[in-house]
Amino acid sequence: MGESSGWAGGVAKRAVAFQRVGCLVVPGLGALISGLAVGVVALWPHSDFALAVVFVALMLYAVMAPLLLLLARSVWLTGAATLLIGIVMFVALGTVAEAICKHPLGEGAMILLLPIMICPALVAVVSLIRLVEWVVLRTIKAVEGGGQAMP
User: Fold this and answer.
1) Is residue 105 part of a domain?
2) What total number of domains does the chain contain?
3) For residue 98, how many other CB atoms are within 10 A of its CB?
4) Angle CA 10–15–21, to nearest 5
5) pLDDT for 24-76, tens place per residue?
6) Is pLDDT of 16 > 60?
7) Of 131, 111, 146, which Cα lies nearest the Cα of 70?
């Protein structure tokens, strides 16, 4: 019991320590990345450069936001916010880059769809990881509680 209790206690402490990020962090991350991207595009308004900056910004968000989902209190609320903000960023950054450059981005803008396809897949994987974590922690608590079922 001592070894199992120590392992379970360590897992529980890590889980409680990491789950401190609220769902407002994801919009903040999206706003920060968008602001930086618009600033960089405004400094050098060339269509190919603008497209590259917008692509990097969207990829950065598409990878970092699901990672923040691992640390979130509410997986479902933060996951929905992640997807919604990703779509808003896609539309807003593409529109701003096109407006600043004064001409259409063209067919090359199709590359901007890649982050929009990656983000939901990563959100699904992270949600599955959190579900497994929840089941494992629930099972550990049930075993430590004398085999009683958790309500």
Assistant:
1) yes
2) 1
3) 19
4) 150
5) 777 888 888 888 888 888 888 887 888 889 999 999 999 988 888 888 878 88
6) no
7) 131
